[in-house]
Structures are given as structure tokens and as C-alpha cells.
Amino acid sequence: MLIDSYDRVVDYLRVSVTERCNFRCQYCMPEKPFSWVPKENLLTFEELFEFMKVAIDEGVKKIRITGGEPLLREDLDAFIKMIYDYAPSIDLAMTTNAFLLKGTAQRLKDAGLKRINVSIDTLKPEVALAIAGKDVLKNVLEGVDEALRVGLKVKVNMVPMKGMNADEIVDVLEYSKARGMSIRFIEYMENAHAKADISGMKSSELLEILGKKYNFSDDGFDGASPSHYYTMEDGYKFGIIEPYGDDFCKQCNRIRLTAEGHLIPCLYFDEAMSIAESIKRGDIKGAALVLKEVVKNKPEKNRWGGDDAEISSRAFYETGG
Ligand code: SAM
Ligand code: SF4
């Protein structure tokens, strides 16, 4: 079992399989980064899988594939199948912008993927164009329908921003609810790569808007996810991810692996250690030692909202959020 210096059990690994993306979301990578990691620096799926086995053997129980946009990487279903065949009981999920999901959902499901989170910030084509830098909404919504049709469990992520999609919070919740998908609103996390003039919304502002339309109870945290949950009168649950709040890091159970093999203990900070060398020379013990060291060095708390807050320079498209 992997336990950090604050007695938190770390059993969740997020794997970014590429930093590249077909969107240019304002809060993530509004411009194409100055340079991409060259393809030869990426770990192959076989190499990533070698590390997945180490992590699973050390106690990881949940793996989420993310990016950049994970569906841009070819043969993703083969990678998913490798993990599934090794440990069928692993909670295997993916986060995607859904643009390419219509043509891939069935293969991913057949390979062993159980759940996906899709980013839906708006239901208006012109707002989707403004947020993603491209006319994406039709493909995204068709991708979601196909994922539901093939039987994947789907959750929706929305990042509400003032003057952009703040007036659609109820609409996106209703869209999700009508399709049996739960929704999590993510507070915009300031970072150096995002567009400078974004004005995110805090949990209290979201609750004020939702409170005008619905009655709901506060369920707190469930221990398994970073979301603060609320239940509406009809039983529908929604979540808010509050990285600026005091409780956000208390139950953090995750570490992140980039496509290049950097193992990152916290989404906010730049610190990382590489497993690439060990994996490439087949040194499984070495990779396990790096994993344990990264878990040991996991910081107690991020600095969003702290008195000494600085803008994080850690890119979401590298870590996978
Ligand atoms: N491309 C996929 C997608 O967009 O779902 C996966 C990668 S993306 C980096 C993962 C998640 O991070 C998305 O739900 C996205 O909304 C979220 N995200 C990216 N930048 C963010 C920011 N600055 N603040 C809050 N959430 C952010
Ligand atoms: Fe791409 Fe996801 Fe970042 Fe948007 S949030 S630019 S879809 S990686």
C-alpha cells in the first residue's frame, strides 16, 4: 500500500498519454504551446503499461487516462486492454473532450473502459467556439450520445466562467440529469498557461445560482473523490470541485504520470521525478522506488487560495487535470 507523509493512502493514478490537444480551451491552452514534447520522448504504451503494473502491484486501484486529449493517441483501446487484462478489477476511467468519441466509444468499452468524464462547458455552439477555439459542440454532443449508447458510465465536468458560460449552469445540469449523468462543476484554477482575463466562479457563487432554482442538501465529501456533493430533492446529486477550499487536499489520494514519464505528486506544484529511465532499462525495482519517493514527497496542500498564493506554472494539458 502507498501511504504519504500525511497518512493519506495513495491508490489513484492519473495517466496523461499525450499533452497534445485538438481544442484550445481558454482555461487550459488558449495558444498552442511553443513546443510540444517530441514524439520520441513519449513513453510507448508498452512502457507505460510496465509502470501501470508496478503501480497496481504497489496498491493503485483506480487509473484514469487523460491528456491533452487522450483520444488523439492511436491505439488507445489496445493500451486500455493491456491494463484491463492485467487487473480486471481496476477502476479504469478516462477524461476526454468527447470530440472523437463517436467513432471510438464502442472499441474503448470493448477494451475494458468502464467510465468516462466529458468536459461540457456549454450547450451553445458559439460559446463552445469561443471557449475551445473551434466549432466543436455537435461532435461533442454526438460523442456523448454514443458513449451512453454503448453503455459507458458518463460524468460531466463543467468549468463555469463569468461572462462566458455562467448563465448555463442550470442548463448543463439539466442536460446531464436528463441523460442520467452526474455533473461536477470545477472551480477555475488559475495557472500561467490560461488566458489572462478569465474570471472563474467560486463554489459560493455557484450555490447561490443553483439555490434559486433547486432545494438541495449538503452531503460533504464522500472520501473517494475531490468533489463536495449535494443532493437535490428528487435524489439527483451534483458535485463542486473546490481547490481553493480548506478541505480539498485532506483526502487527496492521487498522483499523476505524464506522457514523458514524469511522476507528479500534486497538480499545483512543478516538482516531479522521472520513471522513464528505470522503465526503459527494465528496472522495475527502480521504478517502484521512484513511485514510493514521489508518494512520500506529496505535499500536504496546494497553494490555490493560500495567503502565499502564486500562479501555478504547472500546465493542465501536461498533467491531465
Ligand atoms: N482533454 C480532456 C478534457 O478536456 O476533458 C482531458 C484533459 S483536461 C486537462 C482535464 C480536465 O481539466 C477537464 O475537465 C478540464 O475542464 C479541466 N481543466 C483544464 N484546465 C483547467 C483550469 N485551469 N481550471 C479548472 N479545470 C481545468
Ligand atoms: Fe484540450 Fe482538455 Fe485542455 Fe481543453 S481542457 S485544451 S480539451 S486538454
Write structural notes for this entry.
By secondary structure, this protein is α/β, with parallel strands linked by helices. The chain has a single domain (12-319), classed as Aldolase class I (TIM Barrel), CATH 3.20.20. It is 30% helix and 18% strand. It contains ten helices and twelve strands. The protein has helices spanning 45-58, 76-86, 105-111, 125-132, 137-149, 169-178, 203-213, 276-280, 284-296, 316-319, and strands spanning 12-16, 62-66, 91-96, 115-119, 153-158, 182-186, 216-221, 227-232, 237-241, 254-257, 262-264, 273-274. The chain has a twelve-stranded mixed β-sheet. Strand 2 (62-66), helix 2 (76-86) and strand 3 (91-96) form a beta-alpha-beta unit. Helix 1 (45-58) runs parallel beside helix 2 (76-86). The longest helix has 14 residues, at 45-58. It is globular and about 55 Å long. The model has no long low-confidence stretch (mean pLDDT 92). Bound molecules: S-adenosylmethionine and iron/sulfur cluster.
Keywords:
binds iron/sulfur cluster, 18% strand, 321 residues, binds S-adenosylmethionine, 30% helix, single chain, TIM Barrel, alpha/beta, 12 strands
In terms of topology, how is this protein built?
Layout lengths: L11 E5 L28 H14 L3 E5 L9 H11 L4 E6 L8 H7 L3 E5 L5 H8 L4 H13 L3 E6 L10 H10 L3 E5 L16 H11 L2 E6 L5 E6 L4 E5 L12 E4 L4 E3 L8 E2 L1 H5 L3 H13 L19 H4 L2
The protein binds S-adenosylmethionine and iron/sulfur cluster.
Iron/sulfur cluster (SF4) binds next to helix 10.
